[in-house]
């Protein structure tokens, strides 16, 4: 079976997020080496992460989870674990944005705390995407039939992430350029 279009878009969005995590890792290296980093770029990435995944990415995944759970109720356990992560990731993003706020207003913060928060964020984002890729996506391909994918495609067609081939990225054009350069 070829990969259905909805899953192709989800994978493309994962690639865009992975590219942003690569940029964050490069900024972490800068911070470790020089004690400074492009805080505006990291803030842009985090602002995107705070705004877009819950509006564009997770709704597509949740549609697929519901369809798979309806066909195979045992899938609900796996879907629930990922759903919980979907609920918790925005809080982690907001916490990191608050850390950047503290830095920007000139309050001192131990470098190891900042580095730890940045590294943890990247690790958690990567682990979340890996769990979906390694566990959920193969299960979805096994459980859902052609008709299910057709229904999912009709429901998800209007849910496009602007950085993964959707509409104009607006204030996130810099991120789109970095992502396009990375892939």
UniProtKB/TrEMBL annotation:
Q: Which domain of life is it from?
A: Bacteria
Q: Which Gene3D superfamilies match?
A: nmb1532 protein domain like (1.20.120.520)
Pfam family of this protein, just one?
A: Hemerythrin
- CDD domains per UniProt: Hr-like
Q: Where in the numbering of this chain does the Hemerythrin-like domain appear?
A: 8-140
Q: What InterPro entries does its record include?
A: Hemerythrin-like
PANTHER family annotated for this entry?
BLL2471 PROTEIN-RELATED, HEMERYTHRIN-LIKE DOMAIN-CONTAINING PROTEIN
Which protein is depicted? Hemerythrin domain-containing protein
Q: What is the lineage of its organism?
A: Bacteria, Pseudomonadati, Pseudomonadota, Alphaproteobacteria, Rhodospirillales
């Amino acid at each position: 079976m070829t990969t259905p279009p909805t899953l192709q878009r989800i994978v493309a969005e994962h690639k865009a997020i992975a590219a942003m995590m690569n940029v964050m890792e490069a900024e972490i290296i800068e911070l470790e080496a020089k004690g400074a980093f492009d805080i505006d770029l990291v803030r842009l990435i985090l602002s995107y992460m705070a705004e877009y995944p819950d509006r564009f990415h997770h709704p597509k995944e949740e549609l697929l989870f519901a369809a798979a759970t309806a066909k195979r109720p045992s899938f609900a356990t796996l879907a629930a674990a990922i759903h919980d992560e979907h609920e918790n990731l925005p809080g982690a993003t907001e916490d990191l944005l608050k850390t950047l706020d503290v830095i920007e207003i000139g309050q001192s913060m131990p470098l190891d705390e900042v580095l730890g928060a940045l590294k943890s964020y990247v690790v958690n984002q990567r682990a979340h995407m890996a769990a979906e890729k390694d566990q959920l996506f193969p299960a979805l391909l096994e459980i859902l039939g052609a008709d299910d994918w057709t229904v999912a495609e009709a429901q998800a067609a209007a849910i496009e992430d602007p950085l993964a081939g959707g509409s104009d990225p607006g204030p996130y054009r810099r991120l789109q350029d970095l992502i396009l350069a990375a892939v």
